[in-house]
Specification:
The strands form 2 sheets. The protein has a 3-stranded mixed beta sheet, with helices on both faces. It has a two-stranded antiparallel sheet with strand order 1-4. The protein is 47% helix and 7% strand. The chain has a single domain, classed as Ferritin, core subunit, four-helix bundle (Ferritin, Up-down Bundle). The protein has 6 helices and 5 strands; from the N terminus they run βαββααβαααβ. The chain has 247 residues and is mainly α. Helix 2 packs antiparallel against helix 3, helix 2 runs antiparallel to helix 4 and helix 4 packs antiparallel against helix 6.
Length: 247
Amino acid sequence: MEKLNVLPEAPARLDGVGRRSFLRYVGGAAVVGGILSSCTPTADEVTASSTLNDYNFGKYARQASNGVVVDLGTGEIAILNYAYALEQLDSTFYELMLANPSPEFTSKELGRLMDIRDHEVTHREFFKRALGSAAIPRLTLNFSGINFKQRSVAIDVGRMFEDIGVSAYNGAGKYLKTDAYLLTAGKIVSVEARHAAYLSELQFPNSDAFAGDLPVNGQGLERSREPGEVLSIVAPFIEETLVFSLA
């Protein structure tokens, strides 16, 4: 299958991750990856979610594992690399969306989406600098199942990425030990929530989608997800297998 909307920047295979080391991570942390069915429909056959509850990344997925294992590290470094991986995903999505945008977008919408793209690129570069030599390489991201020329689809995927990102930061904050990183993560997640609200309103205008029951629970709190759960959700767009340990 021809790959479209794919960045081919795959990292080198991890040195020193042999069978024993790999199994240690499998047993004590999370392994993300997988091979999707070759029967997945083409991008043109996919329609955007019609309701907030139709929350399904799988219909946009075209990924097959490339067999490369990427180690996010342990403890706080793992969480920083986890955030870096998610910001790679978000920033690349918007870069591709805006490289050849849908003609259905208005000029005002394109301006706001460019702002969001710039925010995500800034977040990505922050984590890259903060991690220094501990940063993972650029991941091989596959968005070939997304019809970027269809406005409703581009917004749908963006909304889900933003919702996942907010829940990811909420779930990961407790693992950060350095005050400066926790403070910055809190600032970033508030920006991601603004993105999610804007895209939800674009997709479902004049509704409660921007802050309704799906993103907010009964206690008035944004939902949170553990790192392993988040990585399992976004795995269809990442060709590497990501491993980490929070011990």
